[in-house]
Predict the structure.
Amino acid sequence: MTIDFETHPDRYRHWRLATDGDTATLTLNVDEGGGLFEGYELKLNSYDLGVDIELADAIQRLQFEHPEVKVVVLRSGKERVFCAGANIRMLAGASHGHKVNFCKFTNETRNAIEDASRHSGQRYLAAVTGACAGGGYELALATDHILLVDDGTTTVSLPEVPLLAVLPGTGGLTRIVDKRFVRRDLADLFSTTEEGVRGQRAVDWKLVDEIAPASRMDEAITARASAMTETSGRPDTTTGVRLGPLDRTFSDSGVLYSTVAVHIDREARIATVTVTGPEMGPPETADDLATQGDQAWPLRAARELDDAFLHLRFNERDIAVVQLRAEGEAATMLAHDAFLDTHGDHWLVNEIRLLWKRVLTRIDLTARSMVALIEPGSCFAGTLAELAFAADRSYMALGSFDEDNRPEAELTLSAMNFGPYPMSNGLTRLQTRFLGDDAAFETAAAARETPQMAEAALALGLVTIILDDIDWDDEIRIFVEERASFSADALTAMEANLRFAGPETMETKIFGRLTAWQNWVFQRSNAVGEDGALRRYGTGRQPDFQTERI
């Protein structure tokens, strides 16, 4: 089954999006029979990947299509339950690879909520009525403010450890201590208490921000949303940009978009992702950019590249190596970068830059070996040069190639390489690349806007290896064959360790530390074995745990 990440509010089965002036409401009312796969029902507002695909789409549409919205209220459309978290039957029956990718995508979606609040001025309010457990509470944790109904029964909980022998895999443990500053001993007690915490105790422990009696809950939601609009930096009145369907064609050999091409060689286990830079220069003004809508190259290319990598993650899991190529005119690409830099305070330009940041981060977090191939006629300039810095290695062509009349390979830096696209560690890819070597970073920064040929790029530390046309094909082939022969598990661990040097942030903890442990836990018999907690949940039989501590 091919998983499609493109959807539209008209096709949502689980979420309802409504806007009213500066406030939007996202209501979760999961269709029990609407699971992405067969074999489970999505009871109690539990979710699977399909539910999160809709949520991710809604978050992005709110940013681009509804710039007037300053506050987004998350609430439940069902009585007595806010959200029961990830569906347990789905987790018990899913392959290990799908579970891990599901957790990663869910984390990225939660991070998108926090990113929208921090950088787009679109604040999020969780209005919790009914049981809010596991991933449901983790969804609330991603918001700016949690308002809990004080009705004597509504609780928040992270019951994965006592009930399921797994962890709160979408950042729960990290967010309660790093974001909400819950005391460690209270966090320990909370995370091992199946029934959760309610009412004033939830406020006292910093698990929620506010409580309201059931009789005043709607009034409290309105009041809090109104207060939160005052902290938003969104424009008061602006027409948004409609996000239309992606221009794409699937085939046995890959996916073709308008600006991105994915070619799959399954026998060699290689995917080649080629991004084509803009054919025309940027518009004169930011308002002109808005007139281009979703067909503006920076927005169109980012959306297509994002969809391409999600497709590779979920539908082409046997691919070992992703080759990254960029084509086009570097001068035109740099003109677009200059436009994005000059008009960064315009709401749409800001959203496009933030989207590129999230797309590039998704590439950073993709468990594939990646190599950038900087060839004659390529367009690794500015924003597209970030692909080379996201790669595990970069190979650059030296000089002209026989029977190839394209210009020599070059790499050019722009302002976009020095701030707008930070990684999960809070540093740019160049800062991470030159960690501990400020002189090398400053030398590279001084060379921005100047095309660097192979020897100069190597001297600046911008590429890994340079090769002439005699060695190019053989060296690339040897690298790919060697990489494909290594253990996929060892490579995933090695690459994740090497990609995020430098300071640790809440985001690196979530993706690096927590999901790595979840990856391990999901392979243990205590969780997924025939007698494990996920298999026996709801059967009335207690799990049979192995007791050895490892």
Observations:
- The mean pLDDT is 95.
